C-alpha cells in the first residue's frame, strides 16, 4: 500500500527509439496489460500516466511515447526536455534499430539532463530465432555508457513492468545526486524517509 504523502514523485519519462521497435506496445502492456499484433504507428506522440508504488515512494510516471519516424526526430527535444527518465528501445531482430538506439543515447547524453536515468530496452525478446543483436553486445554497450540494460517482450510481458519499476527505484537516488531543475518534481522533496523492506 502506498504510504500517503510520504514521498510522492512525479517523473516525466520519455520513450525513444526506431519506428516499430515496440515503444507503444511496451506502454500499452504496462498501462493496460494488453498487446496488439497490429499496433498502429504513433503519430507525433502519445501521453499516458501510470503510478507505481516502490518501497516508501509513489512514483507517478508521466509517459511520453514518441513517434520513431526519422522525419519527426527534430520534435524529440520537446519530449525529453525536463524528463527524469528515458527508455531507449530497440528491436533485438534489427541491427539498424540498435544503431538508432545508440544515436538516441548520444543525443540524450549531449542535450539531456546529466542525471537522466536511461534504460536501454532490447524489445521483442520473444523472437529469439530472429535475433540479430546479442544481449552480450548490448550489455557491454550499456555498461560503457552507464545505462540500465534489459531485454523485454511487450508480447509475452517479460520484464516490462520490471523495466518501469527499476527506473522508479533509481529515481530518488538520482534525485538526491544533483537535482537539476526539472528532473524530478517531488510533491514533498524533503520528506524522504529511510527505505525499508517492502511490503506486507
Ligand atoms: N513479437 C513481438 N512483436 C512486438 C513486440 N512489441 C511490439 N511488437 C510489434 O511490433 C510492431 C510495432 O510495435 P509498436 O509498439 O507500434 O512500435 P513503436 O516503436 O511504437 O513504433 P512507432 O510508433 O512507429 O515509432 C507491432 O506490430 C507490434 O505488435 C514484442 O515484444 N514482440
Ligand atoms: Mg508507437
UniProtKB/TrEMBL annotation:
GO terms for cellular component: cytoplasm; endomembrane system. Keywords: GTP-binding, Lipoprotein, Membrane, Nucleotide-binding, Prenylation, Protein transport, Transport. It is found in: Endomembrane system. The keyword Lipoprotein applies. Gene3D superfamilies: P-loop containing nucleotide triphosphate hydrolases. GO terms for molecular function: GTP binding; GTPase activity. GO terms for biological process: protein transport. It is a lipid-anchor. It comes from the Eukaryota. Belongs to the small GTPase superfamily. Rab family. This is Uncharacterized protein. It comes from Spirodela intermedia (Intermediate duckweed).
Amino acid at each position: 500500500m502506498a504510504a500517503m504523502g510520504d514521498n510522492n514523485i512525479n517523473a516525466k519519462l520519455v520513450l525513444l527509439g526506431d519506428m516499430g521497435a515496440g515503444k507503444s506496445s511496451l506502454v500499452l502492456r504496462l498501462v493496460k496489460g494488453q498487446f496488439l499484433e497490429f499496433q498502429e504507428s504513433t503519430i507525433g506522440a502519445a501521453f499516458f500516466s501510470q503510478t507505481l508504488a516502490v518501497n516508501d515512494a509513489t512514483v507517478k510516471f508521466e509517459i511520453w511515447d514518441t513517434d520513431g519516424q526519422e522525419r519527426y526526430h527534430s520534435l524529440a527535444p520537446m519530449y525529453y526536455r525536463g524528463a527524469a527518465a528515458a527508455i531507449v528501445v530497440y528491436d533485438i531482430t534489427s541491427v539498424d534499430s540498435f544503431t538508432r538506439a545508440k544515436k538516441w543515447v548520444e543525443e540524450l547524453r549531449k542535450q539531456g539532463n546529466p542525471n537522466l536515468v536511461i534504460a536501454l530496452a532490447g524489445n521483442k525478446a520473444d523472437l529469439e530465432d530472429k535475433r540479430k543483436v546479442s544481449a552480450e553486445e548490448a550489455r557491454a554497450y550499456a555498461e560503457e555508457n552507464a545505462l540500465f540494460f534489459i531485454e523485454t517482450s511487450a508480447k509475452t510481458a517479460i520484464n516490462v513492468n520490471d523495466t518501469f519499476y527499476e527506473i522508479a527505484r533509481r529515481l530518488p537516488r538520482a534525485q538526491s545526486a544533483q537535482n537539476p531543475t526539472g528532473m524530478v518534481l517531488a510533491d514533498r522533496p524533503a520528506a524522504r524517509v529511510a527505505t525499508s523492506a517492502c511490503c506486507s
